[in-house]
Amino acid sequence: MEIIIRPKNKWWQLNWREIWFFRDLFYFLSWRDIKVKYKQTIIGALWAVFQPFTTMVVFTIFFGKFAKMPSDGVPYPIFVYAGLVFWTLFSSSLSHVSNTFMENERIITKVYFPRIILPASSIITNVVDCLIASLILFGMMIYYHFDISILGLTIFPVLITMTVFSTLGIGLFFSALNVKYRDVRFVLPFFIQILLFVTPVIYPVSIVSEKYRWILGLNPMSGVIETARVVILGVGQVNWQLLSMSVASMAVYCILGYLYFKKVERYFADVI
After folding, report:
1. Each residue of 68-116: pLDDT tens digit?
2. Is the pTM of this model over 0.85?
3. Considering only CA atoms, which of 164, 203, 189 is closest in space to residue 83?
């Protein structure tokens, strides 16, 4: 007697009930990544602060002091650190998500579960790092006499959520592509490095001509970082046009990344 098992949903549909059923696996993978990252480290969670803080110091010296990069009237150290908090979350998460299937090859080939759990859980560690690094940002606000507003605290998790979804959308595409083409892991770090300089981390959006500012909107992190500086530091006005374009680009990347991931997901165990 031949038994054929067919999926209940179409290939592009997301089975939320199935994901909820495997929620314990999501918790386990997330907690595993957190423990592995800080296991046998000397300073522990302070490593989450070390990268953005050191980068902020270097950028302040070379771009703030030597290059005299404008910062819209905000002290350059806190200007660039506010951007680095979200940029570090994005870049670190994108690297982890893109390699998650290769790092979990044995699990994928032996056990069935919704594969999307792997990239989603790999971001949690970086979100925790972002929250820890944000404590330094609030400390810098006190040092530079910026008020910590209720609006800033309310919008902050929204901007983190936007960063997570932007990462997940782009990361799903690269992670699925990495399963078939292994040289993606060599190209991606270069891509992330270049993307840093086309994202308003070390410079304000105001230095870009209005005519070409829409190009920044194609990068979802542009709207996130620019809005973060306005609502958290309380300086300037929200650029709603840039933010709307960043939200739209985030949605497009999420849809395209998810569709490509679902299209090739069924072949992971055979190719990997």
Report:
1. 999 998 999 999 999 999 999 999 999 999 999 888 888 888 888 888 9
2. yes
3. 203
C-alpha distances (whole Å) from 159 to each of 85, 109, 141, 250 are 11, 36, 18, 12
Pseudo-torsion of CA 259, 263, 265, 269, nearest 10°?
-160
Buried b (16+ CB within 10 A) or exposed e, 207-242: ebeeeebeebbebbbbbbbbbbbbbbbeebeebeeb
Tell me what percent of the chain is helix, strand and coil, each rounded to the nearest 5.
Answer: 75, 0, 25
- Contact criterion met (CB below 8 Å) for 109 and 269: yes
Q: How far apart are CA 86 and CA 102, in angstroms?
A: 26
Query: What residue ranges do the domains of the chain occupy?
Result: 19-271
